[in-house]
Amino acid sequence: MDNPMLNRTPVEQKPVPKHPKSQERLSAQIWKHRKEYLAISPFYILFAIFGLFPIAFSMFLSFQKWDGIGEMTYNGLGNYQFMLTDPEFWRAVGNTLLIWIYSTIPMLFIALVVAFLLNASFVRFRTFFRIGYFLPNVTSLVAVAIVFGTVFSNNYGLLNYMLSLLGLNSIEWLNKTWGIQLAISVMVIWRWAGYNAIIYLAGLQSIPTVLYEAAKIDGASGIQSFFKITIPNLRPIILFTVITSTIGGMQIFTEPQVLVGNDGGVSGGGMTIVLYLYREAFVNNYFGYGAAVGWGMFLLIAIFSIVNWKMVQGSPSND
Amino acid sequence: MNTRRMVSLGLLILVMIISGCTGNASTEKTKTLTLWYWNRSLDDELIKSVEKEFPGIRIDAQKIGGDFKSKLKTTLAAGSGGPDIVAFNDWVAELFTSSDRFYDLYELGAKDIEPDFLDWKWKLGVTPEGTMIALPIDTGPTALYYRADLFGEAGLPTEPEEVHAQLGTWDQYFEAGQKLQEHFDQKVKMLDNITNIYTQMNAQSERIYFAEDNTFIGETPESSMKTAWDTAVKASQMKLSANANTSSSEWNAAMNNGRVASFVGAVWMKEILMQAAPDTSGKWRVARAPGGDGNNGGSFLAIMKTSKYPQEAFEVMKYIQSPENQVQSFKKINLFPSAKDALDAPVMKEPEEFFGNQATGEVFSESARNVKPAYFGGKFANVNGIVNRELSSVALQGKNPDKAWEDALARVKKELLR
What we know:
heterodimer; A: mainly alpha; two-stranded antiparallel sheet; globular; disordered N terminus; disordered C terminus; B: alpha/beta; five-stranded mixed β-sheet; three-stranded antiparallel β-sheet
């Protein structure tokens, strides 16, 4: 997960070379440094084949009707039209947003608390805990989904066993829309809380201690210095985690697919946008439509990232 | 290392990589046939014996794991680099629209062996235009699996013939289910899930969703769609289902714990049941299914148009699927034969311990002989998926069945427009 938006520094506007002579100079420059260009070329070649081409092709494909084998036929805006009037697509959008809200807000909150504790001087074995919290992030997602599947299993699950110990009725978690969404959200929280905590921890450690010392001398309480020093200084870090979690949340796929299958479980409670894209393209063989859904998702992510950015950035006086 | 040596080393590596892609090249003496199949779809030893049987032919058998259908379709989309011989599952009809990508087996001599095979199974590989793209491997005749001990305790018949005689229709089967559940105070359910009822009832029918000109006929009484739906809903309303989805850990547990007394399934469920419910060994029996005989699943072999040796490939396929070799495959890995003669083989009459020494092969062969030829159509899987989704929300979330039926039909009609 990298975030191109944070790394972007304003580039100075250089005059575009218009004179043919300066263009010659550029090609001569390239020729002069051909070995260096050759050395860095693998990335660009691979990117062009596996990154750029598929993106361009999916754009082309989204205007076609194609079952993956036969002839492609031009379909105009037909795929987009179908998408916009497709209740299942909108349901998938709604599900994705719900799962995103259920998972991201608690996850980032937990991550902040964990980071704060990991940074506190009274906690011992801090390195051990840091590794411990990060570990879920490198665990195989499929294995995680299978384990959570047994935890939430309707008849023989761990959760229902615990409910029965408390004398409560068991709940058919994976037969209910909210149950499926809860299970997926819990998986997301479990997996990403530690990752974000490590990022927050790095942010916390970059805040100069002199600020806290000065605040202490001025008689500020712990809560005051948390809200007046820690939070403002963490703002860019929070922005980063919110945007990466949004992109990740919009792209959620493996968790529902392994947990409840290609149809998103009973009544499609776990049908997310990417799972819908996968099912339409690779199960139902509507490759053109799948490509259109992909571009619809791209638009949604772009809108959400901008909204997030504006929201977390807050008032301009703080910048 | 100077620049020239570096460049030549780089070139050497490049050449090695490129030449690696074109290994296995056929020489004049040996012809290499590439075969794509999935685990247990063909007997591995039988494949090995091909090279002995046909000197000069080398078989490059590749087991394709994961989602076989997507991998095959991706290869077909690429238009090259595919195998000579490829296995299909029961989604063969999805490829009818691309039948030009495969050799017409009739042109390679399939007419000669047609009488050897079960008629309905053979027809599944022939397009409505009359080209034959796929040769049968195994079949999946369906029957009723039931627990003789539980049936006996509840006062139901226990012998397969009696069960078939008294539980021959779906209504009789459901009534017996009610009786059984009352006896066990609802702790044992008659059947596994209602989508299975829907699937198996369609499997017993000649017409399901589409007529042979690909018009949707789901709503007309001659198709099984509506009657199968109503029957499944009835089972749900009578609370006969344990709501354990087929091929889930819940299903396995329900079978082993004795929570389910019976289910209708294809012959390949035998193996799944034996692995899922080892504790119930000896207690199961198999009888002809309520509502009639049917087929669910079973696979095929086809030759891709990109193959250089179609005639040789066809001879190999003919050998693999000869009645004798089908009997061997049934013995070894339980592939139920599609050749008529193989159904009379002595191995069909062997008693099986798991089924209380019943020879279940006899029941399944009788079922296989009575399957009606059915037409599936290229969009069968899409439509079937939609109906099954609505049906499971009726069963598991208590959705109103009439509303669910309307939703399913509306969605199917939208689906068929694109």
